[in-house]
Amino acid sequence: MRVVVVDAEHPDPEALAEAGALLRAGGLVAFPTETVYGLGAHALDPVAVHRIYEAKGRPSHNPLIVHVAGPAEARRVVREWPERAERLAAAFWPGPLTLVLPRHRDVPDEVTGGGDTVAVRVPAHPVALGLLRAAGVPVAAPSANRSTEVSPTTARHVVKGLGDRVDLVLDGGPTRVGIESTVVDLSGATPVLLRPGMLGPAELEPIVGMLALPGPRAEGESALPSPGMLERHYAPRARLVLFDPHDAAELARARRSVADARALGRRTGALVIAAEPAEVDEARRLPADPHAYAQRLYDALHTLDDAGCDVVIVERVPDGPAWLGVRDRLERAAK
Ligand code: TXA
Ligand code: MG
Fold first, then answer.
1. Which has the closest alpha carbon to 193: 316, 97, 79, 331?
2. Ligand 2 midpoint to CA 79 (Å)
């Protein structure tokens, strides 16, 4: 595995050309997007895509997002391009939004998990866009971490998690958004929010109308939740215990978790915004602004793991819609 440092705003064209050639030849290239680092492979090459699943230890029924350089390229991997897709793409691409649409027959089963839809997005990062242009092919890329672990927001996280399972890592520094893209399913009659992200209903609904939340379907309807949203996910090695500092029962439970762990000689951590909850070995404080919080969340979780924490108590974030994506990730990580 090689790590090549590139400028985040003006990446060296030669480095991008080399990485693009590696992708066309079936290699695995990790690269920064505005959300998290992706683990890329040539999306139309089933053998290359298969290597992604092996590297991540990911179940092959969990489909991948196809990354493309622009809406014109997106249209080549889908069978239908509804007006809703056109409007969302015009408003938010390049950006942290993934659209699920009926798949084009050229997209292999390895990408879609065998399903009839494909997820597609145009990332807003000069390195990602430069790489996609240099590759000249659509690039399937999940987050560049082992399956169920915390997504990487720096090249260091990628190397720590995947090591020699990846051929090349483009190091473009820390990512700006910090949590994964919002996923919206446009393949049915009503758009469905499959995975919340930093683009929320407040931004999307004025463009596309009411978003449905995935849930149990009526009988006879095809049950197609986002397969990746089912299990514990985005999780550090440590056990996370969420608490609201104003909820006496939750606060007591968090304190007890810390005390029990310490009594067993285990290392403990805390991830807080304002709370001063308990004596722990490693405490990390994150900002009260949802965007700044999201940007730093995964690095904080990686750091607490690196410090060997077995239990981490996490202050719950506010209820507002701006925190939807962050709340989702914390709840999944604490499952
Ligand atoms: O921000 C992101 O989206 C990052 C960067 C690298 O672009 N990628 C990412 O990929 O988070 P991944 O594989 O970790 O998550 C993809 C999510 C999963 O929840 C998966 O189940 C869902 O998108 N997904 C992919 N294809 C789908 C499809 N055809 N139908 C429904 N859900 C799909
Ligand atoms: Mg992931």
1. 97
2. 25
- Which residues sit with their C-beta closer than 6 Å to ligand 1? 33, 35-36, 38, 62-65, 98, 100, 112, 115, 117-119, 123, 141-143, 180-181, 183, 194-195, 226-229
What is the DSSP secondary-structure string of 44-79?
T-HHHHHHHHHHHT--TTS--EEE-SSHHHHHTTBS
Report the amino acid identity of residue 184: V
302 CA from centroid of ligand 2 (Å):
15
Distance CA 295, CA 79 (A): 34
Which residue owns the Cα nearest ligand 1 atom 20?
228
Q: What is the pLDDT of residues 55-77, one digit of tens each?
A: 999 988 899 999 999 999 999 99
Kindly provide the residue ranges of all beta strands, DSSP E only, lying in 65-155, ordered along the sequence: 65-67, 97-102, 117-121, 139-140
Sequence-separated (6 or more) residues with CB below 8 Å from residue 181: 35, 65, 96, 97, 98, 121, 195, 197, 199
The order of strands in the sheet holding 97-102 is 2-5, 168-171, 29-32, 37-42, 139-140, 65-67, 117-121, 97-102, 182-185, 192-195
- For residue 145, the ligand closest to its alpha carbon is 2
Q: Which ligand 1 atom is the nearest neighbour of the CA of 35? A: 1
314, β-bridge pairs: 242, 271
- Tell me if 63 sits within 8 A of 52, measured CB to CB: no
Q: pLDDT tens digits for 126-182?
A: 999 999 999 999 999 999 999 989 999 999 999 999 999 999 999 999 999 999 999
Long-range contacts of 207-213 (CB under 8 A, 24+ apart): 207/87, 207/88, 207/91, 207/92, 208/84, 208/87, 208/88, 208/184, 211/184
Side chain identity, residue 276: E
**Atom 6 in ligand 1: which residue has the minimum CA distance?**
38
Q: Which atom of ligand 1 is nearest to the CA of 177?
A: 1
Q: Helix 201-208 vs helix 83-92: angle between axes, to the nearest 10 degrees?
A: 140
Give the number of the atom of ligand 1 that is nearest the alpha carbon of residue 115: 29
Q: Which amino acid is at 42?
A: H
